[in-house]
TrEMBL record, chains A, B:
The keyword Secreted does not apply. PANTHER family: TRANSCRIPTIONAL REGULATOR, GNTR FAMILY, UXU OPERON TRANSCRIPTIONAL REGULATOR. It comes from the Bacteria. CDD domains: WHTH_GntR (cd07377). It comes from Ancylobacter crimeensis. This is FCD domain-containing protein.
Length: 234, 234
DNA sequence: GCTTAAACCAAGATGAAATTGGTTTAGCAT
DNA sequence: ATGCTAAACCAATTTCATCTTGGTTTAAGC
């Protein structure tokens, strides 16, 4: 381009762009023309335009995404976490790792925050799971025990995260048939491990609660890897 | 079809279908062939097949959806984690506690799984955050650093949980304006703390990474409680 | 050296066509 | 009439090819 086109080089392209953004009436979604087009409109090279857009993006005045375009304003936050999509991208191994990352910390927090009512419910779940006549019943009480621990943190966000994790776990684990006609053996590893978790929480043993939960989940992981016909719950 | 093909009409089509479901090895998603095809396979009319499928659906053994297909097992729960509702029930304190529960474990896992590319991106975020000219810019790089750590776990589920946590954090923190004209001081506590986190991850020091992240978040928590006019990020 | 234009890439949008469960209709045999 | 079958039709959904778009690389040009 000729020098005469830009008689005032001290007026930076960034400023020029800001002026354009203010003047141009953009569509409802505040999307501005594609870079190639915009470069032609303003009369600069695409590379130069992009450098200016980089600045505006750093400033937070615009946001860009490949395939979508460039938009004025802050990046919109998606208000929903899609469990299904998450489950599709994940797998049983990842679920196990995620449980190992989260649940010990939930147990730790529960040991701090649990009320007597929380602990009573945990003990109820323990007892019912021992009385279970089928694996399905056992799984129900097992799931409820783990959720009670999450509830005992008395933190709505942590509980929500646990529920999300749990929903993904169920979605991921769904396919595998578990035709276990027999009921859990009285010496099933989970009974003692669950007991230790609840006891640690009752004793306000924060480190012990986390450790007990981690140990428990590691056992579940080992069984899960060894034999696919075992329930994946724990 | 000839009567000879079905010499035992008392064996209902439903039973026959159940046998088929047990025997056939279905794809990962447990989807069975389209009705038209399945009808041909079994050798019955589509109408008759559908009547049997109706029973199985009633029993809860399968579920169907137009355009999708027919699947064995329970209908997947289409629960979306509602970030907005979660944010409404939560508060900054809970968010902080949730970060303290999750992010050290993410750092620990990242120390295991991070690739050189992950670490390079972390270092980039570090450098940019130091160069930030405004708090807004700093926050952007800080957020990106923390998310890179979550990415470095190479666990889609953990990343999803982190994103959910982060979305709630942003939603909860929404109201508070932070008009901090000055840029972060060169000795801002987070610089050194972030550096320690990344270094531990690079050194494959799993315990150190978790500890560094916990220490960092505790500092953020302290600052947050002491002075509301500080950025809540860290 | 620096800029520019062009090519290339992968993520996302778009739209036509095919697929699929659900429903209706017409034919046909009993 | 009754009951079954095949075919057509419908709307929801997937699939696939194509286009768009920001991001990146490359090489020519000055």
């Amino acid at each position: 381009m000729l020098a005469a086109d830009r008689p005032t080089p001290e007026v930076s392209l960034v400023t020029q762009l800001r002026a354009y953004l203010a003047q141009a009436n953009l569509p409802e979604d505040r999307r501005l023309p594609p870079e190639r087009e915009l470069a032609g409109l303003i009369g600069v090279s695409r590379a130069e335009l992009r450098k200016a857009l980089d600045v505006l993006e750093q400033e937070g005045e615009i946001w860009r995404h490949v395939g979508k375009g460039t938009f004025v304003g802050g990046r919109p936050l998606d208000t929903f976490a899609d469990i299904g999509a998450l489950a599709r991208r994940s797998n049983p191994t990842e679920v196990m790792r995620a449980r190992l990352a989260m649940e010990p910390e939930l147990a730790r927090s529960a040991a701090f925050m649990a009320t007597p009512a929380d602990i009573a419910e945990m003990r109820l779940c323990l007892a019912r799971s021992r009385q279970a006549e089928t694996w399905r019943q056992y799984e129900g009480w097992d799931t409820r025990l783990h959720r009670t621990v999450a509830e005992a943190t008395h933190n709505a966000l942590l509980l929500g995260l646990f529920d999300t994790l749990n929903a993904v776990r169920r979605a991921v684990t769904w396919g595998r048939l578990r035709v276990q006609p027999v009921k859990p053996a009285p010496d099933h590893h989970s009974f003692a491990e669950h007991e230790r978790i609840v006891q640690a929480i009752e004793d306000r043993d924060v480190a012990g609660a986390a450790t007990a939960m981690r140990t428990h989940l590691q056992t579940v992981e080992r069984k899960l890897l060894a034999r696919q016909d075992q329930p994946s719950e724990g």
